[in-house]
């Protein structure tokens, strides 16, 4: 009798946990222009909760893995971005038509690179004048840029200082946004998300994924000793990598600090 009771109890607990854990399913949709009703190709559809993304095909169609109450961020150049929540009705029907509105002015910021680098570090280091102490440079053939000058070494002391100061902006951000910051690793793995961020400079999608606004992003990078030039001109993928690097440094220093205090 005792074993039977334990067996029934384990089934009930499993059933309860299954009910609380959102079940992953797939939904589909077609993105159309709200004026012409024509399909829109190459629209980026990102599941903010799961940090997975897809782009629409030539017919404006997409499929994406979701759970109930997940939020999808939909964006494409020339249209107003849209955020929609996955409902039970959508999951039941399986598909939906989503309308996007064109922007009045569909212009993106044009970034003009200051230096034409060759990809050879020995040569490129001589092409960059010494007076530019706080720039981050992207070298052809390498996946990431590099911060140069006096600002970079100061990052260590600033991050360490924030650990000991509960009122510090970095302390508050990295402490309260742990769930959002865990998404950084997922963001790096999803090709659709990476390609989208690589082509954007407006911080919109990055801000949505991290749950912060543009001003906070700039302040975070300033506190991590990134130069003003880099903060203004880097694409969203470079900005994401910079925040990720600073966060990883913060976690390592925080653990070491806690161990030192306890010892």
Shape call? globular
Please give the count of helices: 11
Adjacency order of strands in the biggest sheet: 3-2-5-6
- Order of SSEs: HEEEEEEHEHEEHHHHHHHH
Content of β-strand: 15-25%
Strand count, sense and barrel status of the largest sheet are: 4 strands, antiparallel
Unreliable residue stretches = 131-144, 148-153
Rg result: 23 Å
The count of DSSP E runs of length 2 or more, i.e. the number of strands, is 9
Mean pLDDT over the full residue set: 76
Strand pairing plus helix content: what structural class?
Answer: alpha+beta
The separation of the N and C termini measures 51 Å
Helix content bin: 40-55%
Question: How would you describe what is shown here?
Answer:
It is built from eleven helices and nine strands. It has a four-stranded antiparallel beta sheet, covered by helices on one side. The protein has a three-stranded mixed beta sheet with strand order 4-1-7. A two-stranded antiparallel ribbon has the order 8-9. Helix 4 crosses helix 11, helix 6 (178-189) packs across helix 11 (236-262) and helix 7 packs across helix 11 (236-262). With 263 residues, the protein is of the alpha+beta class. The chain is 46% helix and 17% strand. The chain is globular. Mean pLDDT is 76; it is low at 131-144 and 148-153. A hairpin with a 6-residue loop joins strand 8 (136-138) and strand 9 (145-147).
């Amino acid at each position: 009798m005792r074993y039977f009771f334990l067996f029934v109890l384990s089934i009930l607990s499993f059933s309860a946990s299954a009910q609380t854990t959102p079940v992953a399913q797939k939904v589909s949709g077609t993105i159309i222009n709200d004026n012409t009703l024509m399909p829109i190709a190459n629209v980026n559809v990102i599941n903010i909760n799961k940090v997975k993304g897809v782009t629409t095909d030539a017919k404006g169609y997409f499929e994406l893995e979701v759970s109930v109450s997940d939020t999808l961020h939909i964006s494409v150049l020339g249209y107003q971005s849209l955020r929609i929540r996955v409902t039970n009705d959508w999951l039941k029907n399986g598909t939906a038509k989503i309308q996007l509105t064109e922007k009045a002015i569909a212009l993106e910021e044009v970034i003009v690179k200051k230096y034409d680098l060759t990809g050879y570090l020995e040569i490129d280091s001589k092409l960059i004048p010494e007076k530019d102490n706080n720039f981050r440079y992207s070298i052809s053939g390498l996946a990431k840029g590099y911060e140069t000058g006096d600002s970079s070494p100061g990052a260590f002391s600033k991050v360490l200082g924030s650990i000991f100061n509960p009122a510090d902006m970095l302390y508050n951000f990295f402490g309260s946004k742990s769930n959002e910051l865990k998404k950084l690793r997922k963001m790096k793995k999803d090709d659709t998300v990476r390609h989208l961020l690589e082509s954007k400079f407006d911080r919109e999608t990055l801000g949505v994924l991290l749950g912060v606004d543009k001003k906070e992003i700039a302040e975070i990078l300033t506190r991590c000793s990134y130069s003003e030039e880099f903060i203004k001109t880097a694409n969203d993928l470079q900005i994401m990598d910079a925040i990720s690097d600073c966060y990883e440094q913060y976690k390592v220093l925080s653990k070491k600090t806690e161990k030192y205090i306890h010892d």
